[in-house]
Specification:
The complex is a heterodimer of chains A (206) and B (300). Chain A is mainly alpha-helical. Chain A has 2 domains: 89 residues, no CATH class; 79 residues. In chain A, helix 2 packs across helix 3. Chain B has a domain of 174 residues: TPP-binding domain (Rossmann fold), CATH 3.40.50.1220. Chain B is built from 10 helices and 6 strands; from the N terminus they run αααβαβαβαβαβαβαα. A 6-stranded parallel sheet of chain B has the order 3-2-1-4-5-6, with helices on both faces. In chain B, helix 4 runs parallel beside helix 9 and helix 7 runs parallel beside helix 8. Chain B is globular, with a radius of gyration of 23 Å. Classes of the chains: A mainly alpha (206), B alpha/beta (300). Chains A and B meet through helix 2, helix 4 and helix 7 of A and helix 2, helix 4, helix 5, helix 6 and helix 7 of B.
């Protein structure tokens, strides 16, 4: 029963979601919206599970003082401070909670995102090395596309931007669509296996 | 000569039966699609939306074909599936981590449980956990989503039990980190830099963080296997990782690793659907060249 019940629930809701797409009747729209609401409610409760796990793991590391426990202490403090500030003075404008979010969390996130620029450069350097015939084609194509995206490309030759657009719209797009078709078919196939209970690793196999 | 001709014709007939069936559905699809001249605004209260008939017929074709091959796979047993380099490399990657005495890092990215890519990732995780348990190599799995964490804990635990070593399972190694995209990246990067895993597996749903994770993994010298359903992130993984599962390879991984005949059958069905799509693309190209609207009308 431990495995049968989730499989039945998965089958019923999977089929319902498929069928409701074709039925515009009010009762189905109502049921669909209700299911989405349930999902939101269940999700909020699962967040509590996540937070409980977060506190448990970090507290354990701090209490046993394993290597790098200072980071765990900072993580725990961050959680507690934000919760206390949120409950004490709310989360609206001109509150300490929002100040902390705007002046600490947002800049830290922006910093992490900014790293992407440097990583793109290092990855491009490695990826575009002309080690083989294929890598040389990749390098030349990338050079044309990059030049086609900036004003200097047009200054070198007026046809470079057109060539760059052609590469993006035809060979590149054809490859992307090929991959997307494969992903679409894989998604349908995997969904069907899950709905029918053929794929049940996510429940823990027998 | 005559006998050879008839034998090859017989073989062709057997293989083409499926294609003829597809063609039949296509004609049905076309005739129904031409009948749909209904405004979707007038459909509230109706029990069927005829403007979606083409989608319905398309789904029915997919389901029929996949069903056929699932049962065909069950009847026939082990079906052939081509080698997927990224999945072949998983064994070597686990062996490398074991030899080096370092952990394996697994990430399903930012996907929630309703994403099929996350489901596919959980299927791979089951096989990875089973192999990891045999060598008692630590498997670290930081999570972005608490539901994925709960599922992953169960999958890893079952994997260790299947391998006959439930005592090696450490629930603290599958944990929740944060729901902030770049907070998650910072945490996973920190784990990589501090614990220096020998193998990184990035399988699931990834967005802008894909390259940050893969480049950090590259900088610590880890062997990296990645796979995602985002075509944009695939290019980053291809550049920064040793092996990348492209497109449907991520979804085929479960069948490839478990050799389950029913799963392999559904992958075979996917291949036949791909043949159908290739025929449609070619036919569409030819018809469009001759100014025919026949196929275009099917997909308004």
């Amino acid at each position: 029963m431990r495995r049968q019940l989730p499989i039945i629930v998965c089958f019923v809701f999977g089929i319902f979601m498929l069928v409701q797409f074709f039925i515009p009747h009010r009762s189905f729209i109502f049921a669909y919206e209700n299911v989405l609401d349930w999902m939101q409610i269940i999700y909020v409760f699962t967040l509590l599970v996540g937070v409980a796990n977060y506190i448990k793991i970090n507290s354990k590391k701090v209490s046993t003082k394993i290597k790098g426990w200072g980071y765990n202490l900072v993580a725990l403090s961050g959680l507690l401070v934000m919760v206390i500030l949120g409950f004490a003075q709310g989360t609206g404008e001109d509150t300490p909670f929002l100040w902390m979010f705007n002046h600490i969390q947002a800049p830290m996130q922006a910093t992490m995102f900014s790293l992407l620029a440097f990583f793109v450069a290092s990855a491009a350097y490695r990826g575009f090395r002309a080690r083989s015939k294929e890598a040389t084609i990749l390098l030349l194509t990338a050079a044309v596309v990059m030049l086609g995206r900036v004003p200097i490309g047009n200054m070198i030759h007026s046809s470079i931007p057109d060539l760059a657009n052609w590469i993006l719209n035809f060979p590149s797009m054809a490859a992307r669509r090929g991959i997307l078709i494969g992903i679409g078919l894989g998604t349908i196939s995997t969904s069907l296996r899950i709905i029918l209970g053929i794929e049940r690793t996510y429940l823990g196999r027998e | 000569m005559f006998k050879l001709f008839w034998t090859s014709m017989h073989k062709f007939q057997k293989r083409s039966q499926i294609l003829f069936l597809m063609l039949f559905f296509l004609c049905l699809f076309h005739s129904i699609a031409f009948c749909q001249k209904v405004d979707s605004k007038d459909l509230k209260g109706s029990w069927y939306d005829p403007t979606k008939t083409n989608v319905l017929v398309g789904i029915l074709i997919c389901i029929a074909l996949l069903f056929f091959f699932i049962f065909y796979g069950k009847k026939k047993g082990n079906l052939f599936i081509r080698e997927i380099a990224g999945l072949q490399a998983i064994d070597d990657a686990i062996g490398r981590a074991t030899e080096m005495g370092k952990p394996i890092l697994y990430s399903a990215g930012l996907g929630k449980m309703e994403r099929v890519a996350t489901m596919a990732s959980m299927n791979i995780l089951g096989s990875v956990a089973e192999k990891v348990a045999e060598y008692n190599t630590p498997l670290i799995f930081p999570n972005y989503d608490p539901v994925v964490m709960a599922v992953a804990q169960e999958v890893v635990k079952e994997g260790f039990t299947r391998a006959g070593h439930p005592e090696f399972y450490n629930p603290d190694n599958v944990f929740f980190v944060t729901q902030s995209q770049f907070g998650y990246v910072a945490a996973v990067d920190g784990i990589m830099v501090r614990q220096k895993p020998a193998t990184n597996l990035f399988l699931g749903t990834f967005e802008a963080e894909s390259l940050i994770l893969a480049e950090t993994g590259n900088s610590i010298g880890a062997i990296q296997i990645a796979g995602t359903d985002s075509t944009i992130q695939l290019s980053f993984f291809i550049v920064a990782c040793d092996y990348t599962l492209i497109g449907e390879e991520l979804f085929a991984a479960s069948g490839y690793l478990t050799k389950d005949p029913m799963v392999l059958g559904s992958i075979k069905g996917q291949d036949y659907l791909k043949i159908l799509i290739i025929i449609l693309v070619l036919a569409g190209g030819i018809l469009a060249t001759f100014n025919s609207e026949f196929l275009r009308m099917l997909f308004p």
